[in-house]
Amino acid sequence: MTIDKGGSAPTDTIPTGSVENTEAASAAVTAVDPRLLVREQGLGGYVSEFKRKMRAGDLGSLPVVIGLIIIWIIFQSLNSNFLSAENLSNISVNMVGTGMIAVGIVFVLLLGEIDLSVGSVSGVAGAAFAVLSVTHGMNEWLAFVLAILTGTAAGAIHGFFFARIGVPAFAVTLAGLLFWNGFMLQILGSNGTINLDSNGVVAKLTSYYFTDVAAAYALAIVVVAGYFLTSYLGNRRREAAGVPSQPLAETIVRTALLAVLAFAVAILYNQYKGLPLAVVIFIAVLLLTDFVLRRTTFGRKIFALGGSVEASRRAGINVEMVRISVFAISGTFAAIGGLFIASKIASANQGAGAGDLLMNAIAAAVIGGTSLFGGRGRTWNALLGVLVIVSIQYGLALQGIASPIQYMITGAVLLATVVIDAVTRKTQKTAGRA
Known about the structure:
Radius of gyration: 26 Å
Structural class: mainly alpha
Number of strands: 4
Strand content: under 5%
Low-confidence stretches: 1-19, 24-32
Order of helices and strands: HHHHHHHHEHEHHEHHHHEHHH
Number of helices: 18
Shape: globular
């Protein structure tokens, strides 16, 4: 209806469905999925989407990628050998042991918890393999499997006390750190060191290289093709369901960038010894665990628990079983990482799992972008984080800088990452996204 300026009674009737305040109506904007804006606005849409993410605190892996590039530039300017094929190949092999442990830590951090036992569990796995295969003459493959299962069992025990008994994860895994370290020393015996067969299963984990140049290129092709097919088919499913999807042009550009990176790495490996077996296994693990977290019901349950335990329980999620499973996964990857570390030194000794291994594994997961507050992260974060840590270690070693300085720099990088994480969460809360 309309009212005259004098405030008299209505003079006429407006048809149903008309809008009284046209200015307010024109100002009202229907929420639009950002991916639609990107598709409609082209390059400008990508810029707008990037600005929106920055304002909302959705930084993703951008800070660590920029940090890694800066680290490489600095060390390359100080020593021209830093980005040599040999040095980068050695970095990629040496990072796998810690990286495997960090993958398990990512699962625990997604729950908003911590596992302090992974260093000791990794030592137990290496010692168990050495005792079974060398001392008792067991088949190496069987000893290998049993060594990994020791980590699974240890993690499940921690998860049981945490999930079923209600003991804080910090206390349970701290007790596990001490117990499993003592257990490792006990099974190694008075000698304290057991040398592994240099041609055995574990030793080959870090010493074997695919010397045929075709191997590295084949892996690059598989990774690039797999990424494109996954993205393309996923977008087709979204389009069929009427859900906003990634434009085909964007998928092609992303695939092209990945191809450039993958083939550059392949060329680098072929300039030294070839494609390392350790790197192949690590990439396979990252792909598998990323699929589990992002594409399976179990993975969604982990993220749900990291967001809210009570809401997850009300939604019918078996909280106890998910928690126990996550700690079992952490123990499993700790054991796998321990075998890679034992492979690097071709022995199991009393120092295994000690030193800065625990802190480096946790730091790798956090530096890579996994939130300490739970509910946000990917297993690829372990790769980025461990690359940063090992790059710093190798770069400082090339400069002849002592370990104390390495610890201080790594600690400073970790603190900076945690600060960014905390600030990001506050920004997301302000933007209504947390």
